[in-house]
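User: Hi! Is it possible to get a structure for several chains at once, not just one? Here's what I have:
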Amino acid sequence: MSEYALEIRQLEVRYGPVRAVRGVDLTVAPGSVTALLGANGAGKTTTVMAVSGSRRIAAGSVSIFGKDMTGATADAIVRAGVAISPEGRRIFGSLTVEENLVVAGSVVPDHKVAVERKAAMMERFPILAERRRQLAGLLSGGEQQMLAVARALMSGPRLLLLDEPSLGLAPQMVDTIFAIIEEVRGEGISVLLVEQNATLALDVADHAVVLANGEVAASGDPAQIANDAVLREAYLAA
Amino acid sequence: MELILQQAINAISLGGVYAMLALGLAIVFSIVRLINFAHGEIMTFGGYGIFLSLLFGMPPAAALLIGVGAAVVMALAMERLAFRAMRGADVVSLLITSFAVSEILKVLFQNGISARPVPISLPASWSGTYQIGGATIGVLPTVSIIVALVALLGLTLFLKRTEIGIAMRAAAEDLEMLLLLGVRANRVVAVAFAISGLLAGIAAVIWTAQRGSVDPMMGFFPVLKAFIATVLGGLGSLGGAVLGGFAIGILEVLAQAFLPEAFAPYRDAIVLATVIAALLVRPDGLLPAANADRS
Ligand SMILES: Nc1ncnc2c1ncn2[C@@H]1O[C@H](COP(=O)(O)OP(=O)(O)O)[C@@H](O)[C@H]1O
Ligand SMILES: [Mg+2]
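Assistant: Yes, the chains can be modeled jointly so their relative placement is included. Here is the combined structure:
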């Protein structure tokens, strides 16, 4: 396989003098889930935001489906097929549930397609249909996460970036979110999944990368990483 | 009774101008965190647009439309030439940039047109009056109220019903997230400036029609009041800006109508003291913005 959905090479991102991400290599194979793990502050969010075009890339490269997108603007990256459910979900709380989807659909070139997709999201997430006219800020954490995923899917992505989708959710809701991740992969969408819940993430993932202090501490087969006691002790809080 | 009705019309008409100016400031601030000190010069430019159109023999109605258009063009030009390069800079740098733009424009108005007021003469019939229950009401203040209300209503519909309007509300809440969804920032920001210019242009029409002249400082004082209105309403809150604008207009007219003559020099001070008192009770303003805690 020569073409990855996402291929990050020697990525470096800085905040002032702080090198938050240092020489990170990471790939997501088409139609698969790559888990990106590591303790708080390891550089996971920075990596994901750099892929999205929201952090300046100091060195290294980002390719999306074989196309070099290093330093591209966020809207070009969306057009290349990438969508994100960011850390903290960041749904628009003062907009209604439906308006959140409408905004995301406004980047779809064909308006009819956007309308159809919105209807499909409402069907897929009945709770969103039920609350379509409510302010999104009034949804529960789990509902907000579903809205964040639905909003990301509005652009019809081929690569989905999920930054801690299960954080702060009740166990049952966590299961629902992971079921959605498997469903999305089943549709052929590639996923980069950032998680603190290493056990669940390694369970669903096809490939895993562990970050520590902005560098790759380990990468490879999720089952192997899950069984590596030293690794778990050192970098994964599970 | 008649006096009350007349004063009410004056208060709402003045409040409508402040509300439109405050709303223009708030729309831009809510999205790019820019407190646009040069907003007054957008309004002044609209006034000169009317003056020059009349000078070149345009019919009055066309001149007023050109004035509004001039304000929109000025707002878009400011964004493109001065503020776009500063996108994402801190609030203070942006504020200082807008001070500079404001000063440059004032000097251009003074040297390019005139430091003194130039007349705007509209048809005499426009400054007529009519009677309601014994009260004599000006046509112009009445039309001003209608124009302001139509503008505010139109903008509300725009923000609620259109895709770009919804995107602007989203941008006010979390611009980075909107960009992550692939929405182009330049478009949203340009529309915000265009709307602020449109509202300032309409304010310029109402203002010049009522005063009959334009000078380089024309926009300065009403926009100063509009700043206070945005703070009173809650910085970055659109509803708050409108509410604050009407509140200040009403306070001003009340102060003028009912305070004894001896207090006349202190009118502005009394209005401001009332605003400060309101802010002591509600520090985030009357209607705080959704993201007030992040700003
Ligand atoms: N906006 C920022 N400004 C400055 N430093 C930041 C910023 N965001 C993250 N950092 C720093 O970069 C490092 C990596 O953070 P982050 O990417 O958020 O890690 P993770 O998502 O793995 O918890 C941390 O040391 C964090 O303090
Ligand atoms: Mg993070």
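The beta strands of chain B are 118-119, 129-132, 135-138, 213-214. The longest strand of chain B covers residues 129-132.

User: Great, thank you!
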